[in-house]
């Protein structure tokens, strides 16, 4: 069985994927609603692309309140 390698993406890509700003993304991470970033160097972090994609799918599949 073939599995794709884990791809790490930086914050600008996460912002593009989600449409959320930096502060809101870090708020979601601090609340445990979005996967925590992975430290890739002393000054840099990245997020696992697959985890972000799964979160987007789960968020979009949940029922929304209508006005």
Explain how this protein is built.
By secondary structure, the chain is of the alpha+beta class. Helix content is 45%, strand content 12%. The chain has a 3-stranded antiparallel β-sheet. Strand 2 and strand 3 form a beta hairpin. It starts with 7 loop residues before the first strand and ends in a 6-residue tail after the last helix.
In short:
With 67 residues, this protein is an alpha+beta fold. It has 3 helices and 3 strands; from the N terminus they run βααββα. A hairpin with a 5-residue loop joins β2 (38-39) and β3.
Blueprint of the fold:
Layout: E1 8-9, H1 11-18, H2 22-30, E2 38-39, E3 45-48, H3 49-61
Antiparallel strand pairs: 1-3, 2-3
Helical amount: 40-55%
Low-confidence stretches: none
Radius of gyration: 13 Å
H/E element string?
EHHEEH
What is the molecular shape? globular
- Percent of residues in β-strands: 5-15%
Structural class: alpha+beta
Q: Strand order within the widest sheet?
A: 1-3-2
Overall number of strands: 3
Mean pLDDT: 89
- Count, helices: 3
- The rounded distance between the terminal residues' Cα atoms is 46 Å
Largest sheet: 3 strands, antiparallel
Features:
12% strand
């Amino acid at each position: 069985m073939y599995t794709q390698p884990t791809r790490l993406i930086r914050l600008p890509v996460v912002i593009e994927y989600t449409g959320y700003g930096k502060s809101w993304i870090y708020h979601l991470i601090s609340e445990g609603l979005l996967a925590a970033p992975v430290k890739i160097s002393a000054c840099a972090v990245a997020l696992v692309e697959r985890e972000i994609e799964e979160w987007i799918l789960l968020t979009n599949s949940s029922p929304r309140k209508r006005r």
